[in-house]
């Protein structure tokens, strides 16, 4: 049984009985190019996920031939002299959406096919917690190609994923990376045959939803927090978190199951 939480508009959201939410960019006529309407819808969908306790993992994908081709370049052209003012608002919506995605308790798995380009496409892929890419998928930043700088947090996320030297190459020279090149650089979790990308992303999601959600959420939080922390400041938070989680029913159940070598029955408590 699947709940259609948002069933029309530029972003679709549904939730299956296992707690896997599917967040889909839905402007296929524009390669899911991001305009303000899509970004506001994306932020609203993320906030809906944030408030929905049944969600245990999120699979993010794009309708049509591409994951997302970044900012809506046709929108770009229509704004003329007014683009800087328009982008001041539009880009802030992209930054808010990326921040909300990273702060979501459930992990986000991007299922990328076609192109992932620009702040919307390349940026969202970099901000996802895991990325499953089709063999034919391609990735590029595109920012400098349109006289802009990277956004969507890419100057942090990409540099941490692939290292500063590689991030400089990718963002300054704007290569189109094949899925294999993106995987080798450290951008992706796995590359799969084109026809299996969504199933593989869902399989990864089901692996996660079978584990204690409080432990999963805490692990995601600590990893993102660690990007900007020193070891000395992170160690006490890890210890505090381990202590807190050890008092949960799921932790007791997991320990008991390991001792007697049986499968655990987690409740999420
Ligand atoms: C600079 C954009 C700002 C616009 C303001 C809107 C606010 C957005 C929110 C803030 C954004 C902040 C700034 C942003 O982060 C900056 C960037 O994203 S820079 C990168 C911009 N993107 C690109 O340069 C990619 C452009 N697209 C392509 O290069 C190619 O389409 C592709 C992705 C390589 C795929 O090529 P193909 O497989 O050949 O597919 P098509 O080209 O046939 O595309 C199908 C269809 O979709 C239309 N389309 C493709 N990309 C976009 C796009 N980015 N915006 C709008 N429409 C797009 C394309 O025209 C085709 O339409 P059709 O011609 O069939 O009607």
Automatic annotation (TrEMBL):
GO terms for molecular function: enoyl-CoA hydratase activity; isomerase activity. GO terms for biological process: fatty acid beta-oxidation. It holds the Pfam family ECH_1. Keywords: Lyase. The keyword Lyase applies. Gene3D superfamilies: 2-enoyl-CoA Hydratase, Chain A, domain 1, Lyase 2-enoyl-coa Hydratase, Chain A, domain 2. It catalyses: a 4-saturated-(3S)-3-hydroxyacyl-CoA = a (3E)-enoyl-CoA + H2O; a (3S)-3-hydroxyacyl-CoA = a (2E)-enoyl-CoA + H2O. The keyword Lyase applies. Belongs to the enoyl-CoA hydratase/isomerase family. This is Enoyl-CoA hydratase/isomerase family protein. It comes from Amycolatopsis acidicola.
């Amino acid at each position: 049984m699947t709940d259609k939480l948002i069933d029309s508009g530029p972003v679709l959201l549904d939730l299956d009985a296992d707690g896997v939410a599917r967040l889909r960019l839905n402007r296929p006529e524009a390669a899911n190019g991001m305009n303000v309407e899509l970004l506001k819808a994306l932020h609203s969908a993320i906030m809906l996920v944030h408030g929905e306790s049944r969600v245990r993992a999120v699979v993010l994908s794009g309708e049509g031939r591409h994951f997302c081709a970044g900012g809506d370049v046709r929108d770009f052209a229509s704004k003329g002299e007014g683009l800087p003012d328009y982008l001041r608002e539009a880009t802030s919506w992209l930054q808010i959406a990326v921040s909300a995605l990273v702060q979501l308790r459930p992990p986000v798995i991007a299922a990328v096919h076609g192109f992932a380009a620009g702040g919307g496409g390349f940026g969202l892929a970099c901000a996802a917690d895991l990325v499953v890419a089709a063999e034919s998928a391609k990735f590029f930043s595109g920012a400098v190609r349109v006289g802009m700088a990277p956004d969507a947090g890419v100057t942090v996320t990409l540099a941490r994923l692939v290292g500063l030297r590689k991030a400089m190459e990718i963002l300054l020279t704007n290569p189109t990376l094949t899925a294999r090149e993106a995987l080798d650089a450290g951008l992706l979790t796995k590359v799969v045959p084109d026809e299996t990308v969504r199933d593989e992303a869902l399989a990864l999601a089901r692996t996660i939803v079978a584990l204690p959600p409080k432990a999963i959420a805490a692990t995601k939080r600590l990893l993102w927090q660690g990007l900007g922390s020193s070891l000395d400041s992170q160690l006490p938070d890890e210890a505090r978190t381990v202590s807190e989680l050890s008092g949960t029913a799921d932790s007791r159940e997991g320990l008991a199951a390991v001792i007697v070598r049986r499968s655990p029955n987690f409740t999420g408590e």
